[in-house]
Amino acid sequence: MGHPRHDLLQYSHEISRLYADGRTVSQIVDHLREEYNIQVSTRTIERRLKEWKQLNRKYEVIETDAMKDTLIMLFQIGVDDREILRVLREQGHRISLHGLATYRRRLGMRRRISREEFEAAKERLKIIIQEELDSGTMKGFGIRHVYTYLWNKGYFAARRRHDLQRTRGEYKAYGPNYVWSIDGHDKLAHWGFQIYASIDGYSRYITWIYVGISNRAAFSILRQFLDTLHSTNKQPRFIRSDKGSETIYLAAAHYALCRKHKENSQISDCYWYGTSTSNQRIEAWWSQLTKSLLFTWRDYFQTLSQHRLFIRDQRNRPDGVYGRPFMLYHFPSDDTVDYSIRPDSELLSQFLDRTTPWDIDEYLPSETLHWCQSTLDELGFSNIELKDIFPSGEHQHCEAYIQLRDCIQRHITSGIEPNLEETKPPTQEHGFHPDLDAIVDEIYDTTDIEEVNYSSNL
């Protein structure tokens, strides 16, 4: 007499899911025994999977461009296959763990390589790095930046796993979008490049960054904030900044939008002030950015200034949660709360409509920009890149700048058309929007905004 036939149909979905997740048949047998006290053989599970047409579907992958882009992006930042699988399934892609690994390897993204492949890749990498060092584009970068840089160039390299598991000191935070820290950066402001950015206090993810002609105009900071809310449809619970005049309209807009969710809220319920140096999250990121990238351009502009090649001065001037900022912000764990709120679409649209006439990305008026581009073309500098070097060793972009500067000076002296000029930073007096104007007056008069030391509150 044979073994009694178990009714496994009611468990078919769970068994199929376990199999698709990469569990072996023996592991599925153990799971049924431990969870449901069902005794079956491995042959029974194999037979049922075949009946349910799952056995031969284990390795099928429905490939799409979106899945490929997500896989490449997550592998690039060091996410393991199980986490990648979780994200892909949340996005609606049907794929098994084994299928994911097979697809990843087919794209050239390997977790392990043979010793022969490693030695060949190492020699190739030496050549590539030397070429990039000679071009001056990798100076000052740490190992993670170098890895990402080479990845963006199309070179895949296996990384030692323990290098991806280094942790930071303890830091108490509540979840994504609980607080955004905002501040400006002036290391390149002397040469006309002003920077402003926002960082999520929980994940260290950069929610926006602006490079342009105005990081100290309240109208500009407001527009950056509104554009971010419009593109993400997310608004943080708190914003943290130093108490400067450039954030007054942003604070008013954030407060007005928050009151759409909680009518009787106070400004201190959604906004924190404090000194710039105690704004721990954004200050730490500025330090990393300066050490890894900005110093190269600062040195370049200082060289131009020291040789009197710059046209003129510009008048305007430790702890954390574990994980990668991108994953912590966009794909937090199930027990982590996303504190974002949806900004009121009607009020947000009203604010955006008032800022629309100003192009936040414009650096030069269109007529001036066209004249400069045409002049560079005539000088033979149509498509130069930072890595382009003359046989003498001089960078071509430096020579292009010097020649363009001389042409601009001659053109201005001649007095002929067109009239070359810079884009003026935006200015805005009272009258921007009734709701914001009233709140701005309230903020200026109130003592209710809490001055906080960010590191002691989270």
TrEMBL record:
What the entry lists under InterPro entries is as follows:
Clr5_dom, Integrase_dom_put, RNaseH-like_sf, RNaseH_sf
Q: Which residues form the Clr5 domain?
A: 7-53
> In what residue span(s) does the Integrase core domain sit?
171-309
GO MF terms, alphabetically ordered:
nucleic acid binding
Name recorded for this polypeptide: Uncharacterized protein
The signal peptide stretch is: none
Show the Gene3D superfamilies listed in the entry.
Ribonuclease H-like superfamily/Ribonuclease H (3.30.420.10)
Q: Which superkingdom is the protein from?
A: Eukaryota
